[in-house]
Amino acid sequence: MEFDVEPSGPDGAVIRISGRLNMVAAPKLRDLVTHIVHGDGRSHLVVDLEGTDFVDSSGLGALIAGLKTARSAGGDLRIARAGTQVTMVLELTGLDRILQSHDTVEECFQ
Description:
Strand order of the largest sheet: 1-2-3-4-5
Shape: globular
Order of helices and strands: EEHEHEHEH
Strand content: 25-35%
Structural class: alpha/beta
Helix content: 40-55%
């Protein structure tokens, strides 16, 4: 699991995830989001899941925790380019209503 963070505008950031978002990677994502929001002051986040081929319940929990962290700072967390497995898990859990996947990173900032 690798994370790449790219600032976007004055208060945004794109987090690109490659690999599996599972119980090993989930705590790292939570810590990263906390650092970006509270340490860097960037509360409008996009999680780019193009390179993520698997997400489990821990990964979903990390995304929801990130959403709460961003919103508590006056921002938001959106996801982009989720693959088939990730989309299916979001739909099966009903989280697709909370974490809607956008086709591009740019759509998330509109």
